[in-house]
Amino acid sequence: MAVETDPVKIMKQEVGKTAASRVSSGAIVGLGTGSTTAYAIESLGNRLQSGDLKDIVGVPTSFQAEVLAKQYGIPLTTLDAIDRIDVAIDGADEVDPQKNLIKGGGAAHTREKVVDSLAAEFIVVVDSGKLVDRLGSTFLLPVEVIPMAVTPVMRAIEKLGGKPELRMGIKKAGPVVTDQGNLVIDVKFEAIDNPIELEKTLNNLPGVLENGLFVGVANTILVGEIKDGKPTVR
Ligand code: 5RP
User: Fold this and answer.
1) Is 33 one of the annotated binding-site residues?
2) Which residues pair with 7 in a beta bridge?
3) Secondary structure of residue 188 in the 3-state scheme
4) 34 lines ligand 1 (CB under 6 A)
5) 93 labelled as ligand-binding?
6) Dist CA 125 CA 51 (whole Å)
7) 108 C-beta closer than 6 A to ligand 1
8) pTM of the predicted structure, to 2 decimals
9) Which ligand 1 atom sits closest to the C-alpha of 109?
10) For this structure, is 158 an active site residue?
11) Measured in angstroms, how far is the CA atom of residue 36 from the centroid of ligand 1?
C-alpha cells in the first residue's frame, strides 16, 4: 500500500481500506471512480495478492477505475457477462442525511449510476466534509449532455432556476470530455428541495444522458474524519 504522510490522504486510505475489507471472496464488485475509491481498489488488489481474498471480479465505472484495477491485478468483467453485482464501492461529492448523493466530480456519474444501482450493497466512501444537510449546498450538480445539445440544455436548465456552466478541463484549454465522448454542465441550484423530482426532470431534457443525483441508491456511508490528529472511520 502506498505510504501516505498527508493526514487527508491517510484518512481517505483508511476509508478505502475499510470498504475493501467488507468484500468477500467470490464477489462481483463495482469499482467506483475518484481519489477515495482508488484506495479501495488498491486495497482489494493487496488483499488478492496476499491471498486474503480470492476470485473477485470487478466492474469498472470509468476508464480511470479500469486502469487502476488492472494496475492492482483485479480481474475485470462487463455487465454483459454477469447477472448481479454483490457490492459496489464508490465516492461522492455530497451526502445528505437520507443517504442521497451528488456524484460526478470526476465526470463519471453516468456509468457510476448504472453500476452502483445494480449492486446489492452500495458502499459510499467519503470524508466528513462531504456531509450536508441539503444537496447542492456546496457542490454544483453535474449533468452529462451530448455535445450538440449543450446550448438548448443550458437554456432549459436556466428556465428550471439553475445556473449552468460548461465544465472546462485543465488550464481551461477545452471542455472536459466524458468516457462516453460527451460534455458536462455543472449547475448551481439555490436549493435542491426535491432531489427525486429534479433527477427525473433533468434526465427528461432532450440531450441529457444522466445527472449526478443518486437518490435512494446508497446503502452504507463510510465517513472518514481526522480526530485529535488521527484518521478515524465511522
Ligand atoms: C466521480 C465521482 C467521485 O466518486 C466523486 O467525485 C468523489 O471523488 P473523491 O473521492 O476524489 O473526492 O463521483 O464522478
Assistant:
1) yes
2) none
3) strand
4) yes
5) yes
6) 24
7) yes
8) 0.96
9) 14
10) no
11) 7
